[in-house]
């Protein structure tokens, strides 16, 4: 059974704060790591698909890094805004599984 | 381009009944995968269909089944419902369901079993 863990479980920050979350996954048989943002009452929305060790992705104020040798990825949000409030999911694709295994998510709340 | 749609959005059933959920993928996408989310759990993979064939299945009992039609629309069926089947069911579509492809999710069907 593949284990994907995310921390922290939840986070409450003030507008303008920068924050980061962690996704840990098995370091063997890595194929890809996905990040999704899931706002309440909406569909999960893809942020990044990361495939190479040392890969870094950026979309506006959000960026992600990947370390496949040690089995973790960080998601950073610079200058958090209330519209960033959502649950952030990571999902690991192992070659043997041929499917995405999701973590339980980090719930971010940004207040004024 | 229209997104992934799921019907119905909400459903209330009683134990022992069966239910069918529907998912229409993005036009041109041939893969549809299904997930279950219960409180405190991450999205759990149910199964994936590509060109009307189930290619992969998660660790769920045989009461959970699905199918895909020639237009790539997919249905998921749960027979003999149990209280523990109360969950949000999401489907996602992509061209081929490969590791590097973005999965596009629908809004989900929330099932309540009484």
Describe this structure in a few short sentences.
The complex is a heterodimer of chains A (112) and B (114). Chain A is built from no helices and eleven strands. By secondary structure, chain A is mainly β.
The interface involving the most residues is between:
A-B, 25 and 25 residues
Note the total helix count of chain A. 0
Globular, elongated, flat, extended or rod-shaped: what is the shape of chain A?
globular
Termini Cα gap of chain A: 41 Å
Query: Main beta sheet of chain B: strand number and arrangement?
Result: 7 strands, mixed
Low-confidence stretches of chain B: none
Helix content of chain A: under 10%
* Low-confidence spans of chain A: none
Which structural category fits the helices and strands of chain B? mainly beta
Residue share in β-strands of chain A: over 45%
Mean pLDDT of chain A: 94
Radius of gyration of chain A: 14 Å
Protein architecture, described:
The complex is a heterodimer of chains A (112) and B (114). With 112 residues, chain A is mainly β. Chain A has strands at residues 5-7, 10-14, 19-24, 30-38, 45-50, 56-59, 62-67, 72-77, 86-94, 100-102, 106-111. In chain A, the strands form two sheets. In chain A, strands 2, 4, 5, 9, 10 and 11 form a six-stranded mixed β-sheet that branches. In chain A, strands 1-3-8-7-6 form a five-stranded antiparallel β-sheet, with no helix packed on it. In chain A, a hairpin with a 6-residue loop joins strand 4 (30-38) and strand 5 (45-50). Chain B is globular, with a radius of gyration of 13 Å. The relative contact order of chain B is 0.33. Chain A binds chain B through residues 4, 31-32, 34, 36, 41-46, 49, 51, 89, 91, 93, 95, 98-105, and chain B through 3-4, 33, 35, 40-45, 48, 55-56, 58, 90, 99-108.
């Amino acid at each position: 059974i593949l284990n994907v863990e995310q921390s922290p479980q939840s986070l409450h920050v003030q507008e303008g704060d920068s924050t980061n979350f962690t996704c840990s996954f098995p370091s063997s048989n890595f194929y890809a790591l996905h990040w999704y943002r899931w706002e309440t009452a909406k569909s999960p929305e893809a942020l990044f698909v990361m495939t190479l060790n040392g890969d870094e992705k950026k979309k506006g104020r959000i960026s992600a890094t990947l370390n496949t040798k040690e089995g973790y990825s960080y998601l950073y949000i610079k200058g958090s805004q209330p519209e960033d409030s959502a649950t952030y999911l990571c999902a690991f694709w192992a070659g043997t599984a041929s499917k995405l295994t999701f973590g339980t998510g980090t719930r971010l709340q940004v207040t004024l | 381009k229209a997104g992934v749609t799921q019907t119905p959005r909400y459903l209330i059933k009683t134990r022992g009944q069966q239910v069918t959920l529907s998912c229409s993928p993005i036009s041109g996408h041939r893969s549809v995968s299904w997930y279950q989310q219960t409180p405190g759990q991450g999205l759990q993979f149910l199964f994936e269909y590509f060109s009307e064939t189930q290619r992969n299945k998660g660790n769920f009992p045989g009461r959970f089944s699905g199918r895909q039609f020639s237009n790539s629309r997919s249905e998921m069926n749960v027979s003999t419902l149990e209280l523990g089947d109360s969950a949000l069911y999401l489907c996602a579509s992509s061209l081929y369901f490969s590791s590097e492809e973005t999965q596009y999710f629908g809004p989900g069907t929330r099932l309540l079993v009484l």
